[in-house]
Design brief:
Blueprint lengths: L3 E8 L2 H10 L7 E8 L2 E2 L5 E2 L6 E8 L12 H17 L4 E3 L3 E6 L2 E13 L3 E9 L25 H21 L9 H8 L6 E6 L3 E10 L5 E5 L4 E4 L3 E4 L4
Parallel strand pairs: 1-2
Antiparallel strand pairs: 2-5, 3-4, 5-9, 6-7, 7-8, 8-9, 10-11, 10-14, 11-12, 12-13
Helix pairs in contact: 2-3, 2-4
InterPro entries: aa-tRNA-synth_II/BPL/LPL, Biotin_CoA_COase_ligase, BPL_C, BPL_LPL_catalytic
Keywords: Biotin, Ligase
GO molecular function: ligase activity
Length: 252
């Protein structure tokens, strides 16, 4: 399904560039934009994502799931997380876990570290751009923060970014095809089950920092049919969280 793959040496943000192309009608579904270096990479809540040139995978893809109800598009970042984790497991031999909703975790020295993230943005009429950033070969002294990690530090059998990218794109095409064929029903296509199986957030005490300066503390007990994280609070209430920052408070 990948209709075109463009590689640029340097850009601000592959997501911003591909969103702009889609908005101008210069990109179709399956367009992939890869950068050797991002100078203004963004994560959720417009956080900065930086890494040395050629040290990671920084890419965005354009999807147009027109036949899937928009209400189910919230699964796309989670679907991408499952696809990335599956692809890296095959291509790099690294065990990865998913922190809800869109962080990729690896284990370095017995500690959980964030090695990647996913950002979804609407693009044009009926399009979604999914951006992926993965630290591949960063050494300890190159990490942006001490709590970050990389595939290399996690013991990857390969840090060659070409087969890693190919593996992730194959996996993304496979999962996207299943989800789309099921009309976006994450339960019917096995996506919900796969996400739950790989989610490191479930079973933990977490704090959800929500819009409007509100926070909820509870045990993460489920991911529901809409992709929301369900928290069981101390008040005996099960509260679904659709958007927010999640802080792991204790090990699983």
């Amino acid at each position: 399904m990948w209709s075109e793959v463009d590689v640029v040496q340097r850009t601000g943000s592959t997501n911003s560039d591909l969103v702009a192309r889609a908005g101008e009608g210069r990109a179709a579904e399956g367009a992939v934009l890869v950068a050797e270096e991002q100078t203004a990479g963004r994560g959720r809540l417009d956080r900065q994502w930086s890494a040395p040139p050629r040290s990671g995978l920084f890419f965005s893809v354009l999807l147009t799931p027109g036949e899937v109800p928009v209400a189910r598009w919230g699964w796309l970042p989670l679907l991408t997380g499952v696809a990335v984790a599956t692809g890296l497991s095959r291509a790099a031999g690294v065990d990865t876990a998913l922190k809800w909703p869109n962080d990729l975790l690896v284990t370095v020295g017995g500690e959980e570290r964030k090695a990647g993230g996913i950002l979804a943005e609407r693009a044009g009429d009926g399009g979604v751009v999914i951006g992926v950033g993965i630290n591949v070969s960063l050494k300890a002294d190159e990490l942006p923060v001490p709590t970050a990690g990389s595939l290399g530090l996690a013991g990857a059998v390969s840090t060659d970014r070409d087969p890693l990218l190919r593996g992730v794109l194959r996996s993304l095409e496979e999962w996207y095809g299943k989800w789309r064929a099921a009309g976006g029903d994450a339960g019917a296509c096995g996506l919900q089950e796969a996400y739950v199986a790989g989610c490191a957030t479930l079973g933990r005490e977490v704090r959800a920092e929500l819009p409007g300066d509100r926070a909820v503390v509870g045990e993460a007990v489920a991911v529901d049919g809409d992709g929301r994280l369900v928290l069981a609070t101390g008040e005996g209430v099960q509260e679904p969280v659709g958007a927010g920052d999640i802080v792991h408070l204790r090990p699983a």
